[in-house]
Amino acid sequence: MATTKFEYHSAWTDSLREEGELRATRRMLLEVLAARSIEVSAVQRERVESTEDLEQLRAWHLDAIRAESSEDVFI
Q1: Where are the beta strands (DSSP E) in 1-75?
Q2: Where do the H-state alpha helices sit in the chain?
Q3: Of 8, 15, 24, 57, which one has the greatest count of Cβ atoms within 10 A?
């Protein structure tokens, strides 16, 4: 996989990249749960959509891979 080297940095462009990564990680988490037929409550979905902590989203994503229920992910 090729990586992109960004020559230009500003607070604005960095915030856009961060928001893109948050959105992608949220989407992957919810897609894994859906693919595994794990139901997500409205409260849990709102928790995912409102989380700004990328490391927390990544941890939930890894938990979703092994989980048997949404409670296993959102302890």
Answers
A1: none
A2: 11-35, 42-50, 54-66, 70-73
A3: 57
Q: Model-level pTM? A: 0.80
Q: What single letter denotes the amino acid at residue 18?
A: E
The owner of tokens 């988490």 is 29
Backbone angles phi, psi at 59, to 5 degrees: -65, -45
Could you tell me if residue 37 is left (phi over 0), alpha (psi between -120 and 50 degrees) or otherwise beta? Answer: left
- Candidates 15, 27, 26; CA nearest to 51 is 26
Distance CA 34, CA 67 (A): 12
Q: Which amino acid is at 8?
A: Y
Exposed, middle or buried: residue 67 (CB in 10 Å: 0-12, 13-18, 19+)? Answer: middle
